[in-house]
């Protein structure tokens, strides 16, 4: 019944779609992109309740002044912008290699067919753990430290993963170490890059 478990995310998305009209727009979006000061204050009041929002509002006004000459681009404009091609190609290459790497590792580890749904569930849980963990520590450490630490952890995990794959023919339990290392790699990737 793993397919029902995976379809649960669709149910959550449907619930979010049903309740989305009852929530206000993001206050920074209203102020910075739409230029709607009254709507921004109304959204802040609706989201945070009664209170004084002048400090937050002043910060957004300063940000608006700084970004006044900057053009906001949509996704298609970003994809057409030649200056971002190196970053886009790097991200695309990284994402594709992660997908293909996982498939090859599962094949190399010679996992049984009955175990693969649990491995897929473990990958999803690893992604969830990394999202929760990263969102709770990003303000404390900053993006730079998380990026460096994430890349270093990923490099270490890849060395261990290669070692476990080389030894998986000699030691049967190394196959499961490979799967655990994949989960750790996903968590390190989610926390850092």
Automatic annotation (TrEMBL):
One of its GO terms (molecular function) is D-glucose transmembrane transporter activity. Residues 1-17 form the signal peptide. It is found in: Membrane. The chain crosses the membrane at residues 115-138, 144-161, 173-192. GO terms for cellular component: plasma membrane. The keyword Transmembrane helix applies. It is a multi-pass membrane protein. InterPro entries: GLUT, MFS_dom, MFS_sugar_transport-like, MFS_trans_sf. Residues 1-193 form the Major facilitator superfamily (MFS) profile domain. Its main location: membrane. GO terms for biological process: D-glucose import; dehydroascorbic acid transport. This is GTR9 protein. It comes from Psophia crepitans (common trumpeter).
């Amino acid at each position: 019944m793993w397919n029902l478990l995976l379809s649960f995310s669709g149910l959550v998305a449907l619930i979010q779609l049903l309740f989305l009209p009852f929530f206000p727009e993001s206050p920074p979006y209203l102020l910075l992109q739409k230029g709607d000061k009254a709507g921004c204050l109304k959204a802040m009041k609706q989201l945070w309740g009664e209170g004084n929002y002048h400090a937050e509002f002043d910060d957004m006004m300063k940000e608006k002044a700084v970004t006044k000459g900057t053009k906001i681009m949509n996704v298609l404009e970003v994809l057409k912008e030649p200056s971002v091609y190196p970053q886009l190609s790097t991200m695309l290459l990284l994402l594709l290699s992660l997908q293909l790497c996982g498939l090859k590792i599962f094949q190399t580890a010679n996992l049984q067919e009955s175990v693969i749904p649990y491995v897929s569930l473990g990958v999803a849980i690893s992604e969830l753990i990394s999202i929760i963990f990263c969102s709770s520590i990003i303000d404390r450490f900053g993006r730079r430290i998380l990026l460096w630490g994430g890349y270093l952890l990923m490099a270490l995990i890849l060395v261990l993963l290669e070692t476990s794959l080389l030894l998986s023919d000699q030691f049967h339990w190394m196959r499961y170490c490979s799967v655990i290392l994949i989960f750790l790699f996903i968590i390190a990737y989610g926390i850092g890059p």
